[in-house]
Amino acid sequence: MMLKQPQDVRILVIGSVNMDLVFRVAQLPRPGETLTGQSLVQLPGGKGANQAVAAARLGAQVSMIGRVGDDELGTALLGHLKNDGVETATLHVTAATSSGVAIIGVENSGQNCITVIPEANGRLTPDDVERSSLLFAEADIVLLQLEVPLPAVVQAVELARQHHVTVMLDPAPAVEQLPPELLQADVLCPNETEASLLTGIEVHDLASAESAARSLQGTTGGHVLLTMGGDGVMVVMSDGTCEHVPAVDVDAVDTTAAGDAFAGAVGVVLAMGGSVVEAARFGCRAGALAASRSGAQPAMPTWAEVSER
């Protein structure tokens, strides 16, 4: 049972802010192949910013720590976040630096490939995080990803621990080994690729997903939500209980932000006092809605939209 309303919870996101350059193509090119694309659009993105917008669209109070460049892209990115209700006072403008950019190819099936150029995101420091320690004291949950330097992410975990705040980590982009501090996350949300790299267990079906999720849960001691796209989510709770949450059927248009919509929704429901399984179910509905729309932040659904799904 959820104890709070969405507007009563405070979410803190530490992560990346990018401008996405999204091109659509019938089928993604193979190495060495040149194809003619169908369209090109510029949209706000970045895993951190996407999750912040996802939570804000659901009604939560959201603050974000990160960096943008002192360029036109940075100005536009800050404007988009403010328009969605994200508090940007601790999003630092980095002098003489470009804002982060992601080049995203989306084929007609909805599948995508992404190249990220971090730029200002790569300048986020532990000191930046430390200077915003008051936000940790006020937060119900802290959402983290790996598109900013690991020392800053580690500092965020340490501050969250000091203030007894729940930590949720989306270990993306995929890495083979996480720093020990990040393995203290209360909630870990990898996808199949990330879980395979972290455990050495190739995730290709529900059985292997459960094995990988149980392995990660044994390491972290917290909850693990292993996302599998159309196969749903394998949830292993901190007590070792396992439950598979099926995916929501959807005609996929663009899966770019589905995982971030899921993470933002899970964070909000957990902060409201919902169970891990309730959060996973709500997250699956949010992710499905985001996948049915184009773009990253523009695709994020509202609480009413997800509740009606």
Structure, explained:
The strands form two sheets. Strands 1, 4, 5, 6, 9, 10, 11, 12, 13 and 14 form a ten-stranded mixed beta sheet that branches. Strands 3-2-7-8 form a four-stranded mixed beta sheet. It has one domain: 3-Layer(aba) Sandwich (UDP-N-acetylmuramoyl-L-alanine:D-glutamate ligase), CATH 3.40.1190.20. The protein starts with 9 loop residues before the first strand and ends with a helix. The protein is α/β, with parallel strands linked by helices. The protein has helices at residues 47-57, 72-83, 126-130, 133-138, 150-162, 192-199, 206-220, 258-271, 276-291, 303-308; strands at residues 10-14, 18-25, 39-45, 61-69, 86-87, 91-94, 100-107, 112-117, 141-144, 166-169, 187-188, 223-227, 233-236, 242-245. The chain is globular. The model has no long low-confidence stretch (mean pLDDT 95).
At the third CATH level, what is the topology name?
Answer: UDP-N-acetylmuramoyl-L-alanine:D-glutamate ligase
* Poorly predicted ranges: none
Q: What is the CA–CA distance across the termini? A: 19 Å
By DSSP, the count of extended strands is 14
| Tally of separate domains | 1
User: What is the overall shape?
Assistant: globular
SS strand fraction: 15-25%
Query: So what's the CATH class?
Result: Alpha Beta
Radius of gyration: 18 Å
Biggest sheet, open or closed, and with what strands and sense?
Answer: 10 strands, mixed
Task: Give me the strand/helix succession.
Answer: EEEHEHEEEEHHEHEEHHEEEHHH
Q: Give the proportion of residues in helices.
A: 25-40%
Q: What's the helix count? A: 10
Give the rounded overall mean pLDDT. Answer: 95
User: Which architecture does the CATH hierarchy give at level 2?
Assistant: 3-Layer(aba) Sandwich
Category by helix and strand content: alpha/beta
Which superfamily, in CATH terms, is the homologous superfamily? Answer: Ribokinase
